[in-house]
Sequence to fold (380 residues):
Amino acid sequence: MHSTHSSQDGKLSMALKSDLEMLLSPTKVGAWSVRNRIVMAPMTRSRAGAQDVASALNAQYYGQRASAGLIIAEASQISPEAQGYIRTPGIYSKAQIDGWRVVTRTVHEEGGTIILQLWHVGRVSHPDNRLPGTRSVSPSALAPSIPIFTAKGLQPVPVPHALERDEIAGVVEDYASAALNALEAGFDGVELHGANGYLVDQFLQDGANQRADDYGGTPDNRCRFLFEVCDRLAEVVSPDRVGVRLSPFGNFNDISDSDPQRLFATAMAGLAKRRLAYLHVINVEATGDRSAKKEAAVDVAAFARQHYDGTLILGGGYTPSSADAVLRTGRADLVAFGRPFISNPDLVGRARSGLALAPADRSTFYTEGPAGYTDYPNAT
Fold:
C-alpha cells in the first residue's frame, strides 16, 4: 500500500540525504578506497564455532553489512594464550584461517572492504576460557578487580604471569604471525586492538604496568610495546594496511593511569610519526566509560585531532546525523558504528534514505545461533 504521506516522506528523505552528504561520500583510508565514511566497529558477538573457527553464520552476518565503507571484524585472538572469553574467533590455526576466508570472500563479493582486529586480552582471562596449558600474561602480576564470564558462570580474574623481558618479543611475533594469517584469510588489512584494558592497554597504563625496566615507568617506556607491535605489523603487512584502536581516558576492565593526558598524547604522537592507515578512538563520554572526574572536561575527538594528524576514525554513541556533523567539523575522517549495526544490517541504506534505525535486543548480543545475529531485517 502507498502511504498518504509519501510526498512529505520523500521531502524528508531528500533533506536527510543532503544532510548526510559528508557521511555518505567516498574517501581513502590507507591503502583502501571506501565508498562511504561509515565504519562497522569491531564487536565481540560470541558466535565462533568449534575450535574458535569462524563459520558460514559469521559469513552471512558480515555479508549482510558489507555496504559499510569499512568493516573492522571482531577482535580475534592471536594465539591460544591471547584468549579471554568463550566462543571468540582466533587467527592462529589453519582451520581458523580457512573459516575466516569464507567471511572475507562473502564480503568482497558484496563489494565491501574488511579488516581484522588483532586481539590479546593479556590479564583479562580465566583458565576455563583458554586451552589447557596456557596462561594469562600482563606487564605486571596484577589482577584486575573484575569478574569474567565462563561456562561455570562469573568468576574472579586470577593474577597473571608478569612477562619477562625476553618473553615480550615472542608476543610481538604472535601479532606478526596473526597479521600474516589474516592476509592469507583474505582480509584487506588489520587493526591492532590497543583499547579497553587488554594487553596493549595494560602496557600503556600505569595502573596495570608497574615494571621497572624499559617497558615501564615513563610514558615513553610504557608506549614501547605498542610501538614495537605497530612497527612489526607495518613490516609484515605494510603501514597503509595497519590501523590502531585506542580508548583514551577509559577505564574498562579496571584500567587506569595517573596522567592519561600525557600518556595518550605520547602514544598518539608516536603513532602519527608511523603514518599508519588510521587511528581509531572511542568516545568514552558516549559509552559511559569515564574513569575520573578530573578527565570529565576532555573532549576525546578534539584531543585525538590535536595529537594525531593522520586519518582518524571516531566511535561511540553516534547517529548518522551526529556522525555527519562531526565529520563536517574536521575532527574525524570516518565514524564507526557498533550496536546500531547489530540491528540494522542496512544501516548505510537507512542513512541514505532517511529511515529510522531499529533498536537492538541486548539479550542476544553474546548468545549462540542466528537469533539476534543474522535475523534482523532490512528496511531498504
